[in-house]
Amino acid sequence: MRPLKTIHASLWHWAVVSTLWLTMSVTAATAHEVVPSIGDLTVTDGQAVLTLQINVEAQLSGIDLDVTSDTNDAPNAADYDALRALSGDAVAARVPDLLARWNALPLLAADGAVTLAVQSIDVPVVANAELPRISTVVLTGPVEAAQVVVNWPDGAGDLVLRQQGVDDPYTGLVSGGSRSAPIALSGGGAASGWQTFVDYIPVGFDHILPKGLDHILFVLGLFFLSTRLGPLLWQVTAFTLAHTVTLALGALGVVNIPGAIVEPLIAASIVYVAVENIFARKMNSWRPLIVFGFGLLHGLGFASVLGEFGLPEGTVLAALIGFNVGVELGQLTVIALAAIALWLGCRAADLARLDGVEGVVEEYPVMFRAWSITGSLIIAVVAIWWVFERTLL
Prior knowledge:
Helices cover 55% and strands 12% of the residues. It has helices spanning 4-27, 56-61, 77-84, 88-92, 95-104, 193-208, 213-223, 229-251, 259-279, 287-309, 316-348, 356-392; strands spanning 37-44, 47-54, 108-109, 113-114, 117-122, 135-142, 147-150, 159-163, 171-174, 183-184.
C-alpha cells in the first residue's frame, strides 16, 4: 500500500497540473471572439438587396470560422491580425475579392446564379484591435423568380438570415457550407414554433461550449464547492431560474443594461464564487441567494448573444426556450466533464490500491478538495484579470 502522504501529494500534483492546463486554455481565448454574420434580404421590383453585418477581416483571412470560436486559436491567426490592423479603406478595397468568391458559389440563386455587385461598404472605426470590427456590406443583384436560395460558403461561420419587407418573413440560421431553405419572395416562409425551438438549442449550447468561457468558469465554481449532490443542485437551480428571467427580459428589450456594466460584474461574480470555495467547507445558507443574484447578471450576458442573432417575429417564445435549453445542456455538459475529470484524477492517483472501492470512496473528498482549492484559486486570478480588463481596458 502506498503511504497516505505520498497519495495526497499525487492528488495535489494532479490537481495543480490539470487546473493550470484548463486555465491556460481558457485565458488564451479571451480576445478576438468570432460572432455570427447577419444578413438582411429584401427583394423589390426585381432587385435583390442583401445587407451583411460581417467581420470582413475574418472572412478574408481564410480562418475556418465553422470550427473556430476565437481567431487567436486559428493556425493562420497572424493573417487575421494583419488584416485587422489595416485601415477601413484598405479593408474595403479587398471586399471585391471576397465578393468574387461568393458569386462563384453563387451566394444568391434564383432559377440560376444571381451575380451580386457591391453597392456600399462601411468599415467602422474600432480603436481596440482586440475587438472584432463588424462592417456593413450592401450587395445588389437582379432577381426574376418567385423564390431565392442563399448559399453560405464553407468555413464562413454562422449567418443569421432575415427576410425584410414581407408578411411572415423567413428567418433562419445558415451554417458554413450549407444553404437556406427556399425563400418565397411573397413572404409566408416564417419558421414554425417547433422549428425555431430546435434551431435555437445549438445556439444556446454553443454559447457555453466552447464560447462561454466566463460562464464555464462560473459553473465550475459552483461544482467546486462540495462533493455532495444537494449543494450543487441548489446552486444550479437558483442560477437557472435567475438567468432565465433576465434572459427573457433582456432579449425582449424590457431590461437594457450596457455590456460595459454587465461584463465586469459577471467577472466579479466568478471571483466571489471562487474565493468562497477556498474558505468554505460546505454551502452557507445564503449561497443560493447570492448565486441567484449572479444568475440575473449572467442572463443579461446571454441576452446580448440573442441580440446578435435576433429573435424571429411570431416565435419569440420558442426561440427563448430553445436557447435556454441549449444553455442548460451546455452547463450540464461542463459539470459532467468536470466530474469525469475528477474520477480520472482518482484513477491516476491509483487510489484503488488503498482498500479497494471503499478506499477510493474514502479518498474522493481529498481529491475533490485538492481540485477545489487549486482550481478556485486559479479561477479567481483569471476572473480578477477579467474585471480589470473589462473595466479599464
